[in-house]
# Entry
Amino acid sequence: MFKHLVLDDSVAIFGLIAFATAAAIFFFFAWRALHMSRGQIDRFSRLPFDSTDARHDTSE
Amino acid sequence: MSDRKITIEYNDRIVRQFLLASVLWGAVGMLVGVLVASQLNFWRLNFNLPWLTFGRLRPLHTNAVIFAFVGNMMFAGIYYSTQRLVKARLASNFLSNLHFWGWQFIIVAAAITLPLGFTRGKEYAELIWPINLAVAFIWVVFAVNFFWTIGRRREPALYVAIWFYIATIITVAMLYIVNHLSIPTSLLHSYPVFSGVQDALVQWWYGHNAVAFFLTTPILGIMYYFVPKAAERPVYSYRLSVVHFWSLVFVYIWAGPHHLLNTALPGWLQSLGMTFSLMLWAPSWGGMLNGLLTLRGAWHKLRTDPVLKFFAAGVTFYGMATFEGPLLSIKSVNALGHYTDWIIGHVHAGTLGWNGFMAAGMIYWLLPRLWSKPLHSVSLANLHFWIGLVGILLYISAMWTSGITQGLMLNATTEHGTVLAYPNFLDTLNAIRPMMLMRVIGGVLYLTGWFVLAYNLHRTIRGAAPVNGTIEVFEEDPAPAGETLGVRGTLFNAPTLFCILGVGFATMWMLGTDLVSTVGLAGALVCFVAGYALIHSRGKSWSAWYEKLLLNALPFTVLTFIAVAAGGLIQIIPTVAIQRAENVEDRLQIVYTPLELAGRDIYVREGCYNCHSQMIRTLVPDVLRYGEYSRLGESIYDHPFQWGSKRTGPDLARVGGKYPNIWHLRHLENPRSVSVGSNMPNYPWLLTNDTDVAALPAKIKVQRMLGVPFGPLSAAQIFDHVAEQSKMISKDLRASGGYVAPEKEIIALTAYLQTLGRSTPVQPRGAAVAAMATNR
# Structure
């Protein structure tokens, strides 16, 4: 096991694959964030200022 | 739904306690920092005392500022903001108090044991094993208190700051446990289970991510709460904070190998570390911009409000440090900067600028709210800011200049690159002395600013009544149904399964051979294609799952853990294979004799690794200066590894046999007698203390358990071996005019130093490849 890593010089490709994976994760969450609704964005960003009991918040 | 309102009082007492502790330990940690920095210019400040040497105090400084100063500040900020974000009081007063007092006990234990020389010899992980258990226990207490509070929340949505706190808690637990795995040899000593390159990788996977998940993510969470509060406007972009969080926690974990560039660490790991470190620039700056732009429309307040000054400067230093870090992670830049003061400058831009200033801003903001009395003096707070800022700028500019000077001098060659331009290491030390002194001045200024804060705090709270925040809520109702995810929802859903399967298949391809590797490649491709197709056809159900995830703390935590664990597993597990005699290049470490092992433990105890490395890099100037580059196999049995991270003194990887025994005696007794201008402390107690030979049987037993091929020596054989070798060295010293009894520690340490660089030649890798090809 792990012979590729110990003996092959082609392991350089794993860095590229790791980069591609990380890029995919980044773009996925960027896409998610861009598609959040305005209402949701406003609600979340105002949480530090919100002093009402959310369970009884009927404004939404 | 009930219509009756009740008032919940937040537990701000614990916040006050942690805040005060943070101020106290910050002063202590910075004072020790100023002392150790001064020692580098004035060796006499070691006072010829074992418990005040640089090698023993530097770990005290790092542990104090990271765990005592930032730790206490972080807990204060987390407990204050979490209660308000989830609209619930901390779940347990008992756990809160246990957390606080337990943490202070750990700090005091560290402050006693480290100067006494009780150490594991690994950076930011020096504390001995009983204290490690205490840390793990208190961290669990913290985690339970935190998650229990989250579980009782009245606000279903988890604000992004909470995400950062969750990532901090679980990742620090993972890192701490793995890097502190040790086998005790006594109540006060242990050997880590890892050795050589694997220990190096685990150490810097931990070390860098201690920076990431102890010094960065909790402070980012604090930034996301306190900066909007102080600026009285919401965070600039919540969308950006989402991207910031997920990309940061996934990418950060992989960056550890950038501490081991150009060393014996396998090339693919170095490339991974470098690549991910460069990628890390993006999410880090995303966070920085989010924090700074939150101040949009409030920039005019910076003129008069010290809190916003500290926050703005703190976030700016975060941006600076997170640009410098990726820059230093480029192999060719690292070739210049590694082992020099440039790294120290980078670290302190982050700690003084980001951690220190965010702490100050948070403290100044909290003080009037926790004691219901205005800050005693806004002018003093502003003065603190300016003194601190000048101190930071002096510090880091001194270290940049010093580091680059030292790097250039050490790497400089002449005669068409065949001869070192500065063959004497001390020439580089002398060149950077003025910069090291400037660093001390910068540190003193920063510490002065901190004393100003402490005075301001004292005057503010003197005579003031502490006050706890409150919130009016409706009487407890049952939790709304239908929102929870559960185990099925967390793990057995399309997005998670595709990710796990995809990574699993990719790992099989990467690490397996033949059929396993082929299956892995095929599986990874299938996952990629199928996942892409499914996103298009079932995108809405995936979206709905993600929305639920944001409201469910436990599933969120589990998936964050998977995200942070992936990098460590993929980087660390393969080193198990490398850590074998048949996989090393062409040299294999010779096992230490019992006396040499005792000497090695003295080397670790005295903290010699804080100034001396044992890793000749694969760089021409290193090889010209110190000899053949260090092979992986030459440290394979070192528990803990001694590759080092700083060269205040020269590398010692091949110092064995370079000087006679008498040279080492004189050097350790008084370094300036053989190296004029050295800033190394004197070690006179090594000539009077006896080597702890009685501890050797237990130590060797543990080493054998860990796979070091010591022979099956009985205690009597060990003692005989020690006596024989130490008499030999003592006799040799006597012949050269040095009179030291054989049982003294300096004999053991000399024995160890004289073995460095000794190895057995083994069949080189190329021949091994040919042999394996023939056998297939």
